[in-house]
Amino acid sequence: MIKMVVFDMAGTTVDENNVVYKTLMLAINEKGINVALDEVLAEGAGKEKLQAIRSVLAIKQIEDETLAKEIFERFLTMLDDAYAEQDIFEQPNATNVFNALRESGIAVVLNTGYNRQTAEALITKIGWQLDVNFDCLITASDVELNRPNPDMILLAMSQLGITDGSEVAKVGDSAIDIEEGQNAGCGLSIGITTGAHTPEQLRQANPDYIIGDLIELLGILENANKALV
């Protein structure tokens, strides 16, 4: 039975018009490295952002840790400026789905490749509150190993007293989200098409389901839990 759902943020529950990956692209391009947004999304979506930069540089045959860290520091400054001006919204039905899950006794976890400062700023801007709209936030800066490693999900499970990964569902908009859920032994790993990756890209990670709207999750969980009763 599913007792906890772990949601990615940008592209899954948060609509920020891809400002993170657009900013990442600009920070890389500032160094004279020509990358397109599609390349940044394909290689960096869902990853901790320094690792995303490393991955994008790798497709240009660049392995330079000093350069990657310089781009990362510049990216953080640019992102703060972008978020100060950017309108941030929830993805359609996010709050309604959170509320429905919590009312049915299913814990809601937000996890993200952002650091905690950025994630909390986004949550505040949307107006979500801990213990009102969600039960736990786990960010890339809270763990040593990031996606596709399962550490963020395992930390959330530990904090909420869940010991069996089969009682957890993971929902995300990138293949690496799906891989993270699979590596954590999640009972369900679900891709959503509202963010970084296309259905074809998501399908390559072999999710249990691919959805186009968060509201579809409620029916999937209801049927999954009924099957186990």
From TrEMBL:
Gene3D superfamilies recorded: HAD superfamily/HAD-like, Putative phosphatase, domain 2
Cellular component annotations (GO), alphabetically ordered: cytosol
Keywords carried by this UniProt record: Hydrolase
Top-level taxon of the source organism: Bacteria
InterPro entries in the record: HAD-like_hydrolase_sf, HAD-like_sf, HAD-SF_hydro_IA, HAD_sf, PGP-like_dom2, PhnX-like
GO molecular function: phosphoglycolate phosphatase activity
PANTHER family linked to this entry: PHOSPHOGLYCOLATE PHOSPHATASE (PTHR43434), PHOSPHONOACETALDEHYDE HYDROLASE (PTHR43434:SF19)
Protein name: Phosphonatase-like hydrolase
Native species: Dyadobacter pollutisoli
Lineage: Bacteria, Pseudomonadati, Bacteroidota, Cytophagia, Cytophagales
